[in-house]
Amino acid sequence: MREAGSPDPRRNAYRDDLAAEGLRGKVKAPAYSPGSDRQFVFPATPLRAHPDARASWTTEALFGELAKVYDEDKDWAWVQLAADGYVGYVRSSALSPQVTTPTHRVSALGTFLYATGDMKAAPLMPLSMNAHLSIAEVGPSFSRLLDGSFVPSRHIVERNRFVADFVTTAEHFVGVPYLWGGKTRFGIDCSGLVQTALQAAGRVCPRDSDMQEAELGQSLEGADLIDALERGDLVFWKGHVGVMTDGFMLLHANAHHMAAVIEPVRSAIERIARGGLQISSVKRLRKTSTPGAKTR
Fold it and tell me: In CATH terms, is domain 104-161 a member of 1.20.144?
């Protein structure tokens, strides 16, 4: 059981029998592990709170993402994701000890890896937005990865090149099925949508909606709050988040529609209120840019 005041186990690798070496002095454990670096080689890998294939997903790790492995037992690895610090269990087969430095990422909603640089070639695997790639050679039509596979050049960008408007990126996911813990075009949840879009814009974003509410933007106050909404504002309820596409429409992946949809924000507010939840906050993000980053 988590003690009051102890670090959040979702982003701090510790359990009753083991903790990350970096937490020595912060949490008590009978043993500490320095961890080992691994890289995800599957298109998308579910992260779970328990080493059980029937356990709910907490998030997904995308192809090329890096992780620190602190423990392995049979088919499961206990890991911490490098991108957002999330901790959980994944299948060991999804990880490779051969780590390459990503140079590019997928900028399209989705794409494929091919055995050859030919649009008629059979695809090797699908990839989703923000998957990390190690590119050896950029070509006019296809780019070659270090492992010899190919990806359409129009679907990738350099790792430090980001979109100027994260809402435009989020809008690409309209119609994608709702999936608890999902972060891809095949399924996405509310906070996964916000995180994916903000990461495409070069912004640091935690995974869960309560973390996002606590750490992102500045709170808006006032009795006429709904009338003051703007594109890019984040609207929070307990356990839920959506992003405004303008002053009237809300984009959110939700279990009511079982999809990512755009609907009038007042309709969403009224429906969610009938379920017993009121808006907990509205956050406005600062217009900032990532140091050294390029926008497109």
Answer: no
Quote the strand ranges of 175-226, DSSP E.
Answer: 183-184, 187-188, 218-219
Cα separations (Å) of 195 from 15, 128, 287? Answer: 26, 14, 17
Report pTM.
Answer: 0.94
Tokens 């592990």 belong to 33
* Pairing status of strand 19-20 against strand 32-33: parallel
Instruction: Specify the fold of 166-284.
Output: endopeptidase fold (from Nostoc punctiforme) (3.90.1720)
Q: For the segment 237-282, what is each residue's pLDDT rounded down to a tens digit?
A: 999 999 999 999 999 999 999 999 999 999 999 999 999 999 999 9
Equal fold, 19-96 vs 104-161? yes
pLDDT of residue 53: 96
Stated as kind and residue range, the H or E segment containing 114 is: strand 110-114
Q: Where are the domains of the chain?
A: 19-96, 104-161, 166-284
pLDDT of residue 296: 57
Which residue do the tokens 């494929």 mark?
112
Phi, psi of 155 (to 5 degrees): -100, 5
